[in-house]
Amino acid sequence: MAKYWMGVVSRQHVLKGIKSGIAQVCHGKQNSLKRMKPGDWIIYYSPTEVFKQKEACRKFTAIGQIKDKEPYQFKMSDDFIPWRRDVNYIKNKEVEIEPLIDKLSFIKNKTHWGYIFRFGLFEIPFNDFKLIASKMGIKVNED
Fold first, then answer.
1. CA–CA dist 58, 47 (Å, integer)
2. Staple partner for 64: which of 27, 49, 77, 89, CB 3.0–4.6 Å?
3. What pTM does this model have?
4. Residue 23: what are its φ and ψ, rounded to 5°?
């Protein structure tokens, strides 16, 4: 049975991940990626346009399915060797979060809705995944 994940990454980094066909979350930590299994799905939420900058994005920016390959390390610089997973991304529309907040069950506190996204990667229910995916232009069936 597939699981459905929400990754939280700047839009700029999401676009780089799509281009490379990879997922990288929680500043490259392995444990987060090990929780995902082949066939699982991930949606990215981008709170900002650029990492460590304040320009808001607040959109769901990418959707894809985890490939068979296990997490692996990739040397980005001498002092940053993050863990990654390979992903089959699906072309999608970016979707603003605000109109969906009241409909998403994983957001428990609708007033302070951004709190849940501080976790970097978390599992979401299929119905929430399906709603977001449909707004992104993707039709999915529960595995």
1. 4
2. 89
3. 0.92
4. -115, 135
pLDDT score of 141 more than 80: no
| Contact (CB, 8 A) for 11 and 59 | yes
Q: Locate tokens 């990626």: which residue?
A: 33
Instruction: Give per-residue pLDDT as tens, 79-134.
Output: 888 889 999 999 999 999 999 999 999 999 999 999 999 988 999 999 999 999 99
Tokens matching residue 2? 């597939």
Nearest of 64, 84, 61 to residue 74 by alpha carbon: 84
